[in-house]
Specification:
The complex is a heterodimer of chains A (about 250) and B (about 100). Chain A is mainly alpha-helical and about 250 residues long. Chain A has eleven helices and no strands. Chain B has five helices and two strands; from the N terminus they run αααββαα. The termini of chain B are far apart. Classes of the chains: A mainly alpha (about 250), B mainly alpha (about 100).
Chain lengths: ~250, ~100
């Protein structure tokens, strides 16, 4: 492949990633605005701190909890530990992305890890698991999705902090997040283990929804993974026993 | 200044959580068990985020037809299943939510 073609394909992957992220942004904007408004009006953080948190931390749920805790004067170490627990699910995203970005240079890995949010992960992992093309340029798709989300988050935070602007709740734009995830997950539920993983994780998430620090979400994810694997084990075993029962020797 | 210390601490643990597994899994051949587990991360985590959004209203379980988000979510899931089209799924889901909320109210 010539360098020119390669650049072309990197660019088209990048913009495909941006495009895939666009619908999610509709749900992210109100969230960023609310964060900005609350950080100023409720927690009384200095504007520059509230704005800087969006690029230094860059994690919506943690920032939301962080500004609340700072507002009531919680000790810093407690806030940092809380952030760690709230973000545990990102370790799952990171592990699940790892095989696909293994071949990249360290700088790329650091950059993509920084951009690894719920929203960027959902879109990128779907793209990675499509078998339509080689891995060569898929990290550009990830980068496009990540940067689109990053800049939207920064801008909506700043507007929330400086202008106190909010989107009317009746527009229910936050629902686009759930809808995007539905659009990404449902077509992938093709085999019984995946369906069981999704259903069991969903049920546990509902039951444990009120657990603090998103621990319910973490437990739900782990239960889903274990259930999926257990079911897959069972079907692997039944295939193995079928092979055993074959009248002919499969190795011949 | 205390604020700055806190947000840098928050940033450090967040970035660490996102980077560490990538770095740890970089040099080793990922064991088969882990590979199989990782396949279930997207359906498990994403549906764990979705389902509470659909069935909980103000923290309480609401499986009635009056729960506009639940019905809109089910419609969206059908669209996603039939078409695999993300934009169409979101568009129809949002329209369904707005129409249902207007009716229910």
């Amino acid at each position: 492949m010539s360098d020119l073609m390669s650049m072309d394909s990197a660019r088209s992957e990048f913009f495909a990633g941006v495009k895939a992220e666009l619908p999610i942004l509709l749900g992210v904007i109100p969230f960023g605005l609310i964060y900005g408004v609350l950080a100023i009006n409720e927690a009384h953080l200095p504007p520059e701190v509230a704005i800087a948190m969006s690029s230094i931390v860059f994690a919506g749920s943690s920032q939301m909890i962080g500004q609340q805790l700072m507002g009531v004067g919680t000790p810093g170490i407690v806030i940092v530990m809380t952030t760690f627990v709230v973000n545990l699910r990102h370790a799952l995203y990171s592990a699940s992305t790892a095989p696909y970005i293994k071949h990249l240079r360290p700088l790329w890995k650091w950059l993509l890890a920084y951009l690894l949010t719920d929203e960027a992960y959902a879109v990128s992992i779907s793209h990675y698991s499509e078998n339509d093309s080689a891995l060569t340029h898929k990290h550009w798709y990830f980068l496009g999705a990540g940067l689109a989300l990053w800049s939207t988050w920064q801008l909506s935070t700043i507007v929330g902090v400086l202008a106190g602007a909010q989107v009317p709740e009746s527009w229910a734009l936050d629902f686009t997040l759930a809808l995007t995830f539905i659009a990404l997950v449902v077509p992938r539920l093709k085999d019984r283990p995946s369906i069981a993983a999704a259903v069991s994780a969903g049920i546990v998430a509902v039951i444990a929804f009120n657990w603090p620090y998103k621990l319910g979400l973490m437990l739900a994810a782990l239960v889903g993974i274990v259930v999926g694997m257990a079911l897959e084990n069972r079907s692997l075993r039944s295939i193995a026993s079928l092979v055993d029962q074959l009248p002919i020797d499969p190795s011949s | 200044m205390n604020y700055w210390l806190i947000i840098f601490g928050m940033g450090f643990v967040t970035f660490g959580t996102r980077l560490l597994p990538i770095v740890l899994l970089e040099r080793i051949e990922i064991p088969f068990v882990i590979q199989r587990a990782l396949r279930f991360v997207p359906p498990a985590v994403l549906s764990a985020i979705i389902l509470p959004e659909l069935v909980l209203r103000d923290g309480a379980l609401d499986l009635s037809l009056g729960n506009a988000r639940l019905i809109a979510g089910v419609i969206a899931a059908l669209v996603a299943w039939r078409t695999k089209n993300v934009v169409l799924t979101i568009a129809i889901g949002m329209i369904a939510l707005w129409v249902l909320s207007a009716i229910v109210r």
